[in-house]
Amino acid sequence: MELAIGTVAAVSRSAAHTFSKTNEAGIRLLAGLGVEGDAHMGATVKHRSRVAQDPTQPNLRQVHLIHGELHDELQAAGFSVTAGQMGENITTRGVELLKLPVGTRLQLGSEAVVEVTGLRNPCPQLDRFQQGLLAAVLDRDEHGNIIRKAGIMGIVITGGDVRPGDPIRVSLPPPPHRPLERV
Predict the structure, then answer these.
(1) Residue range 68-82, pLDDT digits in tens
(2) Angle at the Cα of 95 from the Cα atoms of 128 and 149, rounded to 5 degrees
(3) How many C-beta neighbours within 10 Å does residue 24 have?
């Protein structure tokens, strides 16, 4: 079931394991691997902490997406954050990423499809980038449960080129829907 159409605001990548990623005119997503030329590309985990635990784990974090509206919220709180600086590959507008269920498919542009696997778990590197940023991307709901606002992760189902301005089409999986958890 197709829900909404949003927009790709920016695309970013880094060949090295850097915290921030460089904005690009376009990126290529490769099925089963991730963002071509990005340090986190691969069928198995590439995040250093995960590799240390078990390098054979499947890479459920091939693509990191953050809603540009989070940047607006952080800027209003006094932080200086722009697209790619928090390590995301794709910055979106108009899609409530954090409310999507596991298995949602995002068609980015005319070809590329990313399947949502879960939430990014914010890490202390955020505070090394800007003091207080880690706390700013964490919240609590009315029951005291942690809300992680630092974006979502996904795997590439169908490869293709993605550029700023490309439309995003959201297709929900069949019910029952599973809420996002950290991956």
Answers:
(1) 999 999 999 999 999
(2) 30
(3) 19
The residue among 1, 31, 28, 30 whose CA lies nearest residue 157 is 31
Q: What separation, in Å, do the N-terminal and C-terminal C-alpha atoms of the chain show?
A: 25
Task: Tell me the sheet residues that pair with 63.
Answer: 154
Residues 130-175 pLDDT 10s = 999 999 999 999 999 999 999 999 999 999 999 999 999 999 999 9
Which domain CATH number covers 77?
A: 2.40.33.20
Strand partners, 8: 92
Q: Which residue has the tokens 């700013």?
A: 136
Query: Residue 3: phi, psi to the nearest 5?
Result: -100, -60
Question: At CA 104, angle to CA 68 and CA 120, rounded to 5?
Answer: 50
What φ, ψ does residue 17 adopt, rounded to 5°? -80, 70
Phi and psi at residue 13, in whole multiples of 5°? -160, 165
56 inside domain: yes
Residue 83 belongs to what domain range? 2-171
In a domain, 124, yes or no: yes
Whether 88 and 13 have beta carbons less than 8 Å apart is answered as no
Count of structural domains, the chain:
1
